[in-house]
Amino acid sequence: MNHSASDCPLCLGDSGLVVYRDVRCRVVLTDEPFPGFCRVVWNAHVAEFTDLAPADRQHCMTVVAAVESALRALLTPDKVNLASLGNLTPHLHWHVIPRFADDSHFPQPVWGARQRPGAPRMLPPLFAESLETHLAGALDSPAVSERKLS
After folding, report:
1. DSSP secondary structure string, 77-114?
2. If residue 138 lies in a helix (H) or strand (E), which one and from where to where?
3. What count of Cα atoms within 13 Å lies in the side-chain half-sphere of residue 147?
4. Is the backbone peptide bond immediately before 98 cis, with ω within 30 degrees of 0?
């Protein structure tokens, strides 16, 4: 499947709540069934990490690391998975997924075979706001989201 910018799901929408945005990328708290699953999406429609200039690659990985660090601080997962696949959606993006030993797929990837029913897990109250604040501080940038912090 080869998407152009005009029919690319990541160009057309966010599939979740944007908790950080700058001119180069955005961080989305996704609507995936794994609590805390985030996606770092490069704003420009490029397919591969090496399509980026070196400074842009550095910026992208700085944002990915900031998301991982924030998720570790806020959720204390057993592991954090990082993935950049793009097989179905060839638009550069990174998955940052907090994993817990009692989740339905652990230790397999979230896209793998279900291992057990999985313990119900809810995000803490005001999680999105806390994530937004962590990212703004870590990236030394004001938070830019679709909503105001309370």
Report:
1. -SEEEEE---SSS-S-EEEEEEE-TTSSSTTS-TTS--
2. helix 127-138
3. 10
4. no
pTM to 2 decimal places: 0.89
**Residue holding tokens 């897990």?**
121
Q: Which amino acid is at 2?
A: N
The HSE-up count of residue 78 (CA atoms within 13 Å, CB side) is 7
Residues 145 and 20 sit within 8 Å (Cβ to Cβ): yes
Predicted pLDDT of residue 14: 86
- Enumerate the β-bridge partners of residue 80: 98
Residue 88 vs residues 3, 57, 69, 73, 98: alpha-carbon distances, Å = 9, 22, 27, 31, 22
Residue percentage of the chain with pLDDT more than 70? 91
Residue 115, CA atoms < 13 Å, CB-side half-sphere: 15
Does 150 have pLDDT greater than 70? Answer: no
Strand partners, 29: 17, 38
Residue tagged 């797929």 (tokens): 105
Mean pLDDT of the chain: 89
